[in-house]
UniProtKB/TrEMBL annotation:
Protein name: Telomeric DNA binding protein 1, H-PROTEIN PROMOTE
GO molecular function, one term: telomeric DNA binding
Myb-like domain mapped to chain residues: 543-598
SMART domains for the chain: SANT (SM00717)
Residues in Ubiquitin-like domain copies: 356-421
The organism of origin for this protein: Hibiscus trionum
Length: 665
DNA sequence: TTTAGGG
DNA sequence: CCCTAAA
C-alpha cells in the first residue's frame, strides 16, 4: 500500500485534490500560530520543562489519529503518514520519528547557545555593580529584592507545566518526543480526521477545543507573569518573546494577540485582542509620577543600602569635585558598579572653602518593568533582571545636573557660578543619569525635577523590559532618563515627605516598601521608541538568526507532495496541509525550500550538498515545478470551489510526468 | 498577512 | 534563512 501510494503521484491527482483557494478571510483560521516561530521560547523552556512534560506525556498522552486524507504531514520532525483506507479497520500509521534526538539536541544546543549569547553579551563586562550584584544574587537589601520577594514567590509558585506558553502543541513533541512517537511504527486506533497532536494532551493547561469530532485545536492560555500584583496574569503569546529579540519591534511595541476560538462553523475563530504594548508605562502610573513631581520638588539621596540619606550632600573641604566633569565621572563610576569615588559618608557640614563635596552613596535602580512567562525559571528571571540592568548601565550614560529642579546645561560654568556651592542650593541639587550624548534629546519629563523618594513607588511601577533580554541595544538605547540620582538633604516639601531628614528612618523601612526602585522620569515608551539606537552600543545579536534546520528527506517529500497537489504559490495552504504542526517551518521557509529544491534538481548530483535528496523526489520537484509553472495562469480561473475533475489534459500530464520521472531517473 | 523574489 | 516590496 505504501509502495503504491508512493508512486501514485501522477498529476491526475492534482485536480482531484486541488483544494480551491478560499478567500483569505476564510483561510486565516489556524495558520497564525503555526507560522510563528517560537522555538526560542520552546528552547527556553526546554531545560526546565523536560522532566515534567515527559511525565505528563506518559499519563495523558492520547492519540486519536485518523486518516481521512491521504497525505503526509510533517510535524516536529515527525512525519506522519496517513494512509487512506477503504474500511474502518485500524490504520497503520507510520510515525517516522526522525528527529527526536536531533530535535533534542537542537534544543539543548539552542539553550546553551542562548546562554552563550548572554555571556557574550555580558561576559566580559562587569556591569553588575555591588548593588546590582546583590540584585543578581538575590541578596540585595534594596527594593529590588522586595520586588522579587513579593512577586518572585509567585513566579516560583506558578507551575511551569501548568502554564506552558507554548503556542503550538507541536513544539513539545518536537523537543520532547513522546513515548508514542519515539517508536518507529506505532499503531493507532483508527479515527476520522487528521492526526491530532498527541502532544495536545500533554500540557496541563491546554484547553482543547474540538472541531467537529475529529479535529482538535488547542487553545493555550498563555499566562505570563507580570510584576503587577494587581493584575491577573496576562495572557501572551510567546511570539512576543521572539519579537522582542528584534529591536525593531520595539518601535511599536509588541502587539500581542490572544487566541481564542469559537465553534462557529466548526472551526476555530481566532479572536485577536490587541494588547497594550508591554513596555508602555502604565498610563496611570506615569501620570501619577508626573503629577507627583509637581508636589515634590525635592530630591533626595539614596544611600548605599537603598535608603535615603539626608546627609549625603554637604560641603566639605576634604574632597574636591571640580565641576561637572568630576561629579559626572564619579557618578558614572558608581553607576557602572565600581566603588564610589566619593565616599564621604556623613561629611561634616563645614564649608571652609569653596570646595564642594558630594557623597553619592549609591544609585537607585531605575524602574524596570520585567515580564517573564510563568514558566520561566527563577534562573532565567535572574538573568533577565541582570541583563536588563546590565543593558541599562551598559550604554553610554550621561550625567545631568539639576539645580532647583532645572537642568544645568552649561558645562563650563563653575559650581560657584552655577550656585552649587552653598548649602542652600545643595538642597535642591540633583543628578540624573541619562543616555549617552549620542542619544536623542531626553524626553519631556526629564526636564522635571527629580523624583523625590517620597514618591510612593510601588512594585507595580516597574518598567518593562523584554522577557528575553537578548540585550537588545534597544534597552540601553531606550533608557532616556532611567537613572535619576537625586540628592537632597532637606526636602522642601517636608509635609509630603514621608522620609524625614534622618538617615535612620529610611533604610529598611523604606526598602520594605519597595522604594528602592525609583522610577525616574520619563521613561515613557514614546520616547523610548523614538530614540534612535546608538550605533555605539549596538550589538550584533540583534536579530538572532534562526538556527538552521535542514529539511529532512521526509519533510522534502511532504513538501513535494503538497506542492504537487496545491501547486506553487500557495505556500500558506501548503504549510497548513503538510507542515501545520511544524512550527519552525514557515510558509516562507517552505517556499524557500521549494526554490532550492528546484535548483537542486536542476544541477548535477555532484554539485549538490547536504543530505542527499532522493532523485525520485527531485524528479517530482521538477515535474511539479514544470507543471505548475505552465498551469499557473490557467489554474487561477479554472478551479472553482468544489471542482473535482480529471481531464484529459491532466491524464496527459500524468503521463508526461511519469515519463519525465522515468527519463530523468 | 501572504506572495514573490532578491540577497 | 533573511528581508521586503507589493498585494
Amino acid at each position: 500500500m505504501v509502495f503504491k501510494k508512493r508512486f501514485d503521484y501522477g498529476f491526475n491527482t492534482f485536480n482531484v485534490r486541488n483544494v480551491p483557494r478560499a478567500p483569505r478571510s476564510n483561510r486565516r483560521c489556524r495558520s497564525r500560530q503555526a507560522v510563528e516561530d517560537s522555538q526560542i521560547c520552546a528552547f527556553e523552556l526546554l531545560a526546565s520543562l523536560a522532566g515534567q512534560l515527559l511525565q505528563e506525556s506518559e499519563s495523558s498522552a492520547s492519540s486519536n489519529a485518523s486518516g481521512a486524507h491521504d497525505r503526509v504531514s510533517i510535524g516536529n520532525d515527525v512525519v506522519k503518514r496517513e494512509i487512506h483506507s477503504d474500511d474502518d479497520k485500524p490504520l497503520k500509521i507510520e510515525f517516522v520519528e526522525q528527529g527526536s534526538c536531533e530535535a533534542s539536541a537542537a534544543a539543548s544546543e539552542s539553550t546553551t547557545e542562548n546562554n552563550d549569547n548572554v555571556k557574550e553579551i555580558h561576559g566580559d563586562r562587569d556591569l553588575c555593580s555591588p548593588d546590582l550584584r546583590d540584585l543578581c544574587d538575590g541578596k540585595s537589601e534594596n527594593g529590588f529584592k522586595q520586588e522579587r520577594d513579593a512577586k518572585g514567590l509567585d513566579i516560583g509558585k506558578s507551575s511551569i507545566a501548568s502554564t506552558c506558553p507554548l503556542k503550538d502543541p507541536v513544539e513539545l513533541p518536537m523537543t520532547f518526543p513522546s513515548p508514542d512517537n519515539s517508536k518507529r511504527d506505532v499503531k493507532l486506533p483508527s479515527r476520522k480526521g487528521p492526526i491530532p497532536n498527541a502532544s495536545f494532551s500533554r500540557h496541563r493547561n491546554i484547553k482543547l477545543g474540538s472541531k467537529d469530532d475529529d479535529e482538535n485545536f488547542s487553545r493555550f492560555n498563555r499566562l505570563s507573569y507580570r510584576f503587577k500584583a494587581s493584575r491577573p496574569p496576562a495572557r501572551i503569546g510567546d511570539r512576543r518573546i521572539r519579537k522582542l529579540l528584534t529591536s525593531k519591534y520595539w518601535k511599536a511595541g509588541p502587539k500581542l494577540k490572544d487566541y481564542e476560538h469559537s465553534k462557529a462553523d466548526g472551526r476555530m475563530k481566532p479572536l485577536y485582542r490587541k494588547r497594550k504594548a508591554y513596555y508602555n508605562y502604565d498610563r496611570y502610573q506615569y501620570d501619577t509620577l508626573c503629577k507627583r513631581r509637581k508636589f515634590f520638588d525635592r530630591s533626595s539621596i539614596v544611600t548605599s543600602d537603598g535608603g535615603i540619606s539626608s546627609e549625603s550632600v554637604c560641603n566639605s573641604p576634604e574632597k574636591v569635585v571640580d565641576g561637572d566633569k568630576g561629579s559626572s565621572a564619579s557618578m558614572l563610576h558608581e553607576a557602572r558598579g565600581l566603588p564610589p569615588l566619593l565616599t564621604g559618608n556623613k561629611a561634616p557640614h563645614q564649608s571652609k572653602n569653596s570646595h564642594v563635596k558630594f557623597s553619592i552613596k549609591s544609585f537607585r535602580i531605575p524602574e524596570l518593568y520585567i515580564e517573564v512567562p510563568e514558566s520561566a525559571t527563577v534562573g532565567s528571571l535572574k538573568r533577565t533582571v541582570m541583563e536588563a540592568v546590565s543593558a541599562l548601565l551598559g550604554g553610554g550614560i550621561r550625567v545631568g545636573v539639576l539645580l532647583q529642579g532645572k537642568k544645568v546645561r552649561d558645562d563650563n560654568r563653575t559650581l560657584s557660578q552655577t550656585g552649587i556651592s552653598c548649602a542652600d542650593n545643595l538642597d535642591s541639587l540633583g543628578f540624573t543619569l541619562e543616555p549617552g550624548p549620542t542619544k536623542a534629546p531626553p524626553p519631556v519629563c526629564s526636564e522635571e525635577p527629580p523624583l523625590p523618594i517620597s514618591c510612593d513607588i510601588s512594585p507595580q511601577t516597574l518598567t518593562s523590559f523584554p522577557a528575553n533580554p537578548v540585550v537588545d541595544t534597544g534597552i540601553s538605547d531606550a533608557t532616556p532618563d532611567l537613572l535619576l540620582l537625586t540628592n537632597s538633604a532637606h526636602p522642601v516639601d517636608t509635609n509630603h515627605e514621608p522620609v524625614s531628614s534622618q538617615t535612620d528612618v529610611l533604610t529598611d523601612q523604606s526598602l520594605s516598601e519597595s522604594r528602592a526602585l525609583v522610577p525616574v522620569s520619563a521613561m515613557n515608551v514614546e520616547a523610548l521608541n523614538v530614540i534612535p539606537a546608538s550605533p555605539k552600543v549596538r550589538k550584533p545579536e540583534l536579530a538572532q538568526r534562526r538556527t538552521r534546520r535542514p529539511f529532512s528527506v521526509l519533510e522534502v517529500e511532504a513538501l513535494v507532495q503538497a506542492v504537487e497537489e496545491l501547486g506553487t504559490g500557495r505556500w500558506r495552504d501548503i504549510k497548513l496541509r503538510a507542515f501545520e504542526n511544524a512550527d519552525h517551518r514557515t510558509y516562507v521557509d517552505l517556499k524557500d525550500k521549494w526554490k532550492t529544491l528546484v535548483h537542486t534538481a536542476k544541477i548535477s548530483p555532484q554539485q549538490r550538498r547536504g543530505e542527499p535528496v532522493p532523485q525520485e523526489l527531485l524528479d517530482r520537484v521538477l515535474t511539479a515545478h514544470a507543471y505548475w509553472s505552465q498551469h499557473q495562469a490557467k489554474q487561477q480561473g479554472k478551479h472553482q470551489p468544489g471542482t473535482l475533475r480529471i481531464t484529459d489534459t491532466e491524464s496527459d500530464r500524468n503521463g508526461v510526468a511519469t515519463t519525465a520521472a522515468t527519463v530523468s531517473m
